[in-house]
Amino acid sequence: MELNERQIKAVLYVKERGKITNKEYQEINNTTKKTASRDLSVLVEKEILKQIGETGKGTHYVLIKREPIGDKGDKKET
């Protein structure tokens, strides 16, 4: 799962603040709306972020919660 520097910065931003908007993505990465939209779409496709809202000002992105690897409750004794 390779991410570019902008996407990594966005994931760290969401970890710290809980969410990110397209506008915030543009500001922290000094990029265009088109690039921000494309990068955020990739993060959604890779199931790293979840889009909240359809389109427009209310749309933001949050991290998808994941279980830690090996934490499935079915521990095997060795």
General description of the model:
- The protein has one domain (5-63): Winged helix-like DNA-binding domain superfamily/Winged helix DNA-binding domain (Arc Repressor Mutant, subunit A), CATH 1.10.10.
- The chain has helices spanning 5-17, 22-29, 33-45; strands spanning 49-52, 60-63.
- The protein has a two-stranded antiparallel ribbon.
- The protein is 44% helix and 10% strand.
- The protein has 78 residues and is mainly alpha-helical.
- InterPro entries: WH-like_DNA-bd_sf, WH_DNA-bd_sf.
Total strands: the figure is 2
**Regions with little confidence, pLDDT below 50 for 5+ residues:** none
- Biggest β-sheet: count, sense, barrel? 2 strands, antiparallel
What's the helix count? 3
Whole-angstrom Rg: 15 Å
Organism: candidate division WOR-3 bacterium
Protein name: DeoR family transcriptional regulator
